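Database export, one record per block. Field names are fixed; values are copied verbatim from the stored entry.
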Amino acid sequence: MAQKYDQFAAQGTRLGLIQGDAANIEQYVTNKALDGLYLMIGEEEARDQAKSAASPVGAIVSKVFGRA
């Protein structure tokens, strides 16, 4: 199935209908999975920073490092 997609995508690329990583299904899926993973990591990091800033120690650290 992936080979058929790649064949059709190659034709679409030549016609200018498909660009970049979308021409190879394995590369496209890998990139989308990594995009989702990085998004989740970023969200978790933001939650962690919000938690630490809300704690008394976090407030002191924020003042010391200028994040206040």
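Remark 1: The chain has a mean pLDDT of 84.
Remark 2: The helical segments are 2-14, 25-54, 56-65.
End of record.
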